[in-house]
Design a protein that fits this description.
Length: about 475
């Protein structure tokens, strides 16, 4: 037999969407049975962000339940996404894959202390029964402003590829990159390094239903939340000693069958999670109301707690970070998590008075308050009204009914000084993209990790 087929099945950016996971498991079992019957080589891979602490199972297990599920589905190799990398403490990530039955390859993640987890590989070679050697690199997005606070460092992806590509060309037959870097970086890598046969991507949640070829490299990705699973087919010619065919497809699982064993396992994991989530944080006599478009006592308290905790002059937080009201009575860890599930950290930025006024103006606009944001860590419905601590905002109405900012005052009642620099605490969401440009552009940002907003919410609830 001069020609041989090789299959890769992959998932990316599940984000702990466990409703979909039994469908993934059923699909992979079916494909595994088919490949075994035809004596064809196959490998299962995950491209990162399998973990998302917005799900109670992941929150309670610190991601260990995700590893259990990957073990159960018989995965061969995975790389890390930023949700594995920067939403867990250093020790939690250090131990995350201790019980993994699969290989973990992340070529550009390094511990800043002298201890490297035993499971962390720079590259790995998979082997077919016929002896075809598949060299695998894994690369994750370099969010070093977070990683370095957690005592990790992510090297530049191009420097890492330069370091390993020649060795892989010599020692393997096929080179595959598991890339949690995003589509534009994947395309740039393929332009620079045509020796990489396949880039399996993620991070930017792009869906390539048929894959694309850039400069001889096949690029593929399967969207987000595992509504699709990816399949790559290669044909290796043993006589020519090269890949003579490659194609990729992202296969929809939206209406596919579920694996019952996996569903039962998830139920067990949820029961285990509830032991942790049922712990009582505080007890309140009256309900704590939440309203995305109003200043309620609980969002006011959370904003004040954030200001004190970060030692800021001013704090601002959008009311949409709290998803629901707290009922009277016992409030549990699970309630805190359900109402504030986002993997969002507090951040302290330097802004001068003029920049603060501009930020307040932007935050009070309907374009901001009514925005149905997806991403940047936000797991809510709409951003909602911006709540302030440390400043008082005087507004008025234009003739057309639109609100505008007349003046911003300090707590003492003095107008904010246009050139004075203030420390402003807010959600790290606003340091990305162009939601609030003045905050995103600030050159001084201090992120607080591994604490999330919900850790501060627990303090705020206790005050009531």
């Amino acid at each position: 037999m001069s020609e041989e087929k090789i299959y890769f099945y992959y998932t990316n950016d599940l984000h702990s969407n466990f409703e979909q996971w039994p469908r993934v498991a059923a699909f992979l079992k079916e494909k595994q049975a088919s490949r075994k019957e035809n004596k064809e080589a196959y490998f299962k891979m995950d491209i990162g962000d399998h973990v998302d602490r917005s799900h109670p199972i992941t929150e309670a297990s610190h991601g260990l339940a995700n590893v259990e599920l990957l073990n159960e589905a018989d995965y061969d190799i995975v790389t890390l996404g930023n949700n594995e990398g920067i939403t867990l403490s250093h020790q939690e990530l250090y131990r995350l894959y201790d019980k993994a039955d699969f290989h973990v390859v992340c070529s550009n993640l390094f511990s800043r202390d002298e201890f490297t987890p035993f499971w962390l590989k720079r590259s790995h070679t998979l082997m077919t029964e016929s002896g075809i050697r598949i060299g695998v690199l894994g690369l994750t997005a370099p969010f070093n402003s977070f990683y370095e606070l957690l005592d990790w460092h992510v090297e530049n992806e191009f420097e890492i590829i330069e370091k390993y590509i020649e060795e892989l060309k010599r020692e393997t037959d096929i080179i595959v990159l598991l890339s949690h870097l995003g589509i534009s970086v994947d395309q740039e890598i393929s332009r620079r390094y045509p020796d990489i046969d396949v880039i399996i991507g993620g991070h930017t949640h792009h869906l390539l239903e048929e894959g694309i070829v850039v400069n001889q490299t096949l690029i593929t990705a399967a969207g987000k939340h595992c509504y699709y699973v990816g399949e790559v087919e290669l044909i290796w010619d043993h006589e020519k000693k090269k890949v003579i065919f490659k194609e990729a497809a992202a296969i929809s699982l939206q209406e596919s069958v579920k694996d019952l064993e996996t569903e039962e396992h998830l139920q067990q994991l949820l029961q285990q999670a509830n032991h942790y989530l049922d712990q009582v944080v505080a007890s309140v006599e009256k309900p704590l109301e939440v309203n995305w478009f109003a200043e309620t006592p609980i969002i006011q308290s959370l904003t004040k707690v954030m200001r004190r905790w970060t030692n800021a002059d001013i704090a601002m937080l959008n009311a949409g970070v709290l998803l629901d009201s707290f009922s009277a009575g016992a409030i549990t860890v699970g309630d805190i998590h359900r109402i504030c599930p986002h993997p969002i950290n507090p951040v302290l930025v330097d802004l001068n008075g003029d920049q603060i006024v501009e930020t307040v103006r932007a935050a009070l606009s309907p374009a901001f308050t009514e925005l149905k944001l997806k991403g940047f860590g936000f797991r809510g419905e709409v951003l909602g009204k911006m709540i302030f601590s440390g400043i008082r905002v005087e507004t008025a109405f234009h003739r057309n009914g639109e609100v505008y900012v007349k003046q911003v005052y300090t707590e003492d009642g003095y107008p904010i000084h246009p050139n004075k620099v203030y420390y402003v605490a807010t959600a790290d969401t606003f340091t990305f993209g162009q939601l609030l440009p003045e905050i995103a552009r600030s050159t001084k940002k201090q992120y607080f990790v591994p604490e999330f907003l919900r850790d501060l919410l627990a303090y705020a609830v206790k005050q009531h």
